[in-house]
């Protein structure tokens, strides 16, 4: 069990570790693996954002939500850069679609748990993740001509 006085420094150390992950993720030469790593980073950042919010740390919450948005955008850009058609090679695209769907569900739950006045900090992140999710789903379902 973590001592209460250790919880905040431990959370800050994890947040720094996540920030240190972004350059490593961007350096990944395999674009599909980069996308997966970025989505994993978004998932972890969302968990930390919820923890920071529960502790009343709004600046850290906003920063971690920005990390979620940037990670999802990186995952989307990485998949687009592969040059593959999602309808012909759906594995990485379907993984990203499922993960963004899961992120959306968790973000909706998080938004409902937030104070009404604090919800504007999560809305643009949800909109970005929703847009990426919808684009992935459209690409996967696209019919070949």
Summarize the structure.
The protein has helices spanning 4-27, 31-54, 58-81, 91-113, 123-141.
How is this structure best described in words?
Helices cover 79% and strands 0% of the residues. It has one domain. Helix 1 runs antiparallel to helix 2 (31-54). Mean pLDDT is 86; it is low at 1-18. It is built from five helices and no strands. With 145 residues, the protein is an all-alpha fold.
Distance between the termini: 58 Å
Overall SS class:
mainly alpha
Helix and strand sequence: HHHHH
State Rg.
16 Å
* Beta-strand segment tally: 0
Sum up the structure in keywords.
145 residues; 0% strand; 5 helices; 79% helix; mainly alpha; disordered N terminus; single chain
């Amino acid at each position: 069990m973590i001592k209460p006085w250790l919880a905040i420094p431990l959370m800050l150390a994890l947040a720094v570790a996540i920030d240190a992950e972004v350059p490593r993720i961007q350096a990944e030469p395999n674009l599909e693996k980069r996308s997966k790593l970025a989505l994993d980073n978004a998932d972890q950042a969302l968990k930390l954002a919820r923890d920071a919010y529960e502790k009343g740390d709004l600046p850290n919450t906003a920063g971690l939500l920005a990390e979620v948005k940037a990670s999802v955008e990186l995952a989307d850009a990485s998949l687009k850069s592969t040059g593959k058609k999602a309808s012909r090679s759906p594995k990485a695209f379907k993984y990203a679609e499922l993960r963004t769907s899961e992120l959306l569900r968790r973000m909706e739950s998080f938004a409902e748990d937030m104070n009404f006045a604090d919800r504007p900090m999560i809305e643009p992140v949800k909109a970005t993740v929703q847009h990426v999710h919808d684009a992935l789903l459209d690409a996967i379902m696209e019919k070949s001509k």
